[in-house]
Specification:
Number of strands: 23
Radius of gyration: 22 Å
Structural class: alpha+beta
Number of helices: 12
Largest sheet: 6 strands, antiparallel
Distance between the termini: 22 Å
Strand content: 15-25%
Helix content: 25-40%
Length: about 450
């Protein structure tokens, strides 16, 4: 599906105060394609160099490839408003379903595909007012309106891109940032979650933010949230320094030989991965022990464990099943589901009827996704090796709109995916990704201006 999306390309910003950094590149660009690539590279460095040097966003390139492009797209105020309204409305639906599901029996958790090690922990939440503290809905803009593809409720990324980079790029281009002022949402939601755990009687004095310290995106995202949280007593702890010691999760302080207990952990580490983790030496199920600490209230975590329920794409099938049966939801909630969600099932009800997609229940970044025609023929398939062993859901297929972007490879026709953050139950910043029909790990980040 092709849609008219206004793209601000680097050639449109040759004049004015921005020309000083590009004068030579502009001259060189007259010589042909190679010089034009040089001009684009110079312009891209003009945009992202200062942000990278500030230590805010070190992953504008990933795996040797361009990730953040120097093109910018515009979003209309009307679409921006609709994405926000849809985000909050679906947040209510998800939360209503989650608060019911987390009190269900183990058979429900098994049906949703949750590892058995997580079943005790996922009953725990910081607040029953929202499904997750920091989540991100992914949206397709279609001829039938906005359609939600999935909710990233456990360990969403693209946070720095949405809350920091987008505003800096818009400022350089003289555009209005659609996310202006929204970084405050992160601080408010994180502090409210800590306060909620404290009100439940949990200790929250020793707070750690943890991720793989060698992974630029994960570590950078986690450090950014730490800085934005306002939790002055919190610290960054690499995942490699976490230990279970005397029935507590601790930071191993190699300099002193001390195990420092942790009361509350923000972790950019998926719960389904944690469930599988064992000590390399003796095979002890460390991950299961940590999940048990969560279940017994000896460790509080963000996002709360209950958010992991909503991460399962089988949860979408549960919502659609209840909706289709006319059960559980209010009339307004049924209308929200019908308007913004796609039919999703645990079994294939689409073959011979309409095009569809299969997705692993805990897949990420387009992993193990397959696109099918109505006759069941494979039309596109993810090429990565991960997630193929997981149970699949089947969802009605929609086409992402096409946007033309200038990149290091030249002019590319890409498929556009909108992300919209749900922060403590409130619609917040948006982010745009563009790539193939399957939005994978190497899809582009695209800045967005309002207007």
């Amino acid at each position: 599906m092709a849609m008219a999306i206004d793209t601000v390309r680097y050639r449109g910003w040759m004049g004015g105060g921005l020309n000083e950094a590009r004068g030579q590149a502009e001259v060189e660009a007259q010589a042909g394609a190679g010089a034009d690539a040089y001009a684009y590279a110079a312009w891209r460095e003009r945009l992202y160099g200062p942000i990278r040097e500030a230590g805010v966003f070190a992953w504008d390139r990933m795996y040797g490839e361009e990730y953040a492009v120097a093109s910018c797209i515009r979003i209309s105020p009307a679409l921006r408003k609709e994405i926000a309204e849809a985000t909050e409305r679906l947040g209510v639906v998800y939360n209503r379903t989650l608060q019911m599901a987390r009190l269900g029996d183990d058979a429900l958790f098994e049906a949703l595909g949750l590892p058995s090690e997580t079943w005790g922990a996922v009953r725990v939440t910081s607040s029953d007012a929202y499904p997750t503290v920091i989540g991100r809905f992914d949206w397709a803009e279609t001829a039938d309106g906005l359609k939600m593809l999935e909710l990233n409720s456990d360990t969403p990324t693209s946070i720095v891109e949405a809350y920091e980079v987008n505003g800096r790029i818009c400022a350089q281009l003289g555009l209005q940032d659609p996310n202006a002022g929204m970084a405050a949402h992160l601080r408010e939601a994180l502090q409210a979650a800590v306060d909620a755990y404290a009100a439940q009687g949990h200790a929250v004095d020793r707070v750690a933010f943890s991720a793989l310290d060698w992974h630029e995106e994960d570590a950078g995202t986690t450090r950014y949230l730490l800085a934005r949280s306002g939790l002055t007593h919190a610290r960054f702890v690499p995942l490699a320094d976490l230990r279970v010691f005397e029935d507590r999760l601790c930071e191993w302080r190699g300099d002193t030989g001390v195990h420092e207990p942790i009361d509350l952990l923000y972790r950019l580490h998926a719960l389904e991965k944690l469930a599988e983790e064992r000590d390399e030496g003796d095979g002890y199920p460390t991950g299961a022990h940590v999940l048990d600490l969560m279940a017994r209230g000896r460790l509080s975590v963000l996002n709360p464990p209950a958010a992991f329920l909503a991460q399962s794409k089988a949860f979408q099938a549960l919502i659609w099943n209840l909706h289709e049966a006319g059960e559980f939801y209010t009339a307004e909630e049924h209308e929200t589901i019908e308007r913004y969600m796609l039919p999703t099932y645990m079994e294939n009800r689409f073959e011979g009827v309409r095009p569809y997609v299969s997705k692993p229940i805990f897949g990420r970044e387009g992993g193990a996704v397959t696109l099918y025609g109505a006759d069941g023929s494979v039309q596109e398939k993810d090429g990565e090796a991960q997630y193929w062993e997981q149970p699949m859901v089947y969802q009605q297929r929609v086409e992402l709109p096409v946007v033309e972007l200038e990149t290091e490879k030249g002019l590319e026709a890409c498929r556009l995916l909108w992300g919209s953050f749900l922060i403590g139950g409130r619609a917040s910043a948006i982010v745009a990704r563009a790539g193939g029909r399957i939005t994978g790990n190497l899809s582009y980040y695209v800045p967005v201006g309002l207007g």
